[in-house]
């Protein structure tokens, strides 16, 4: 296994625009996947487990995956935050889960878990971008 300095050197050497886009898309699609690809296995595992668990917990707590309704700005912002989790968000849409149960006591907590999971993944994407461009 390559050391972290070798991995960082490889990342800086491959910081072409196409590689940066690929890393960002990979980081968006699967939380931690870009870090895994860049050689940061422990970070990748933590990101994947924590963010996926938050998403699943949010769904289990009857949270709602918000639709893109730009007529209502707060709903649109929540939808953008949910979208940040990538493939789990797509899978939830395809499977028809995440409709939310407004009457459930845990509904707002579920919404919070879903929104925060997506927002945290945006930070993971930025971290992967910083790694591949050599800023970190």
Notes on the protein architecture:
70% of the residues lie in helices and 0% in strands. It is built from seven helices and no strands. Helix 2 (17-29) packs antiparallel against helix 7, helix 4 packs antiparallel against helix 7 and helix 5 crosses helix 7. The chain is an all-alpha fold and 136 residues long. It has one domain. It is elongated, with a radius of gyration of 16 Å.
Run of helices and strands: HHHHHHH
What's the count of strands?
0
Shape: elongated
Rg, alpha carbons: 16 Å
How many domains make up the 3D coordinates? 1
Termini gap:
20 Å
Task: Output the structural class.
Answer: mainly alpha
Low-pLDDT parts are none
Q: What labels describe this entry?
A:
136 residues, mainly alpha, 7 helices
Write the layout of secondary structure elements.
Layout: H1 4-13, H2 17-29, H3 33-37, H4 41-60, H5 73-83, H6 87-95, H7 107-133
Helix pairs in contact: 2-7, 4-7, 5-7
């Amino acid at each position: 296994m390559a050391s972290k300095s070798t991995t960082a050197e490889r990342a800086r050497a491959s910081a072409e625009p196409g590689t940066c886009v690929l890393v960002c898309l990979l980081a968006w699609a699967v939380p931690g996947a870009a870090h895994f690809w860049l050689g940061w296995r422990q970070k990748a595992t933590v990101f994947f487990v924590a963010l996926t668990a938050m998403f699943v917990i949010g769904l289990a707590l009857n949270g709602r995956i918000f639709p893109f309704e730009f007529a209502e700005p707060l709903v649109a912002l929540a939808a953008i935050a949910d979208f940040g989790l990538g493939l789990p968000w797509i899978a939830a849409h395809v499977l028809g889960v995440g409709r939310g149960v407004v009457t459930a006591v845990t509904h707002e907590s579920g919404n919070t878990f879903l929104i925060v999971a997506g927002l945290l993944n945006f930070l993971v994407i930025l971290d992967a971008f910083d790694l591949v461009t050599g800023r970190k």
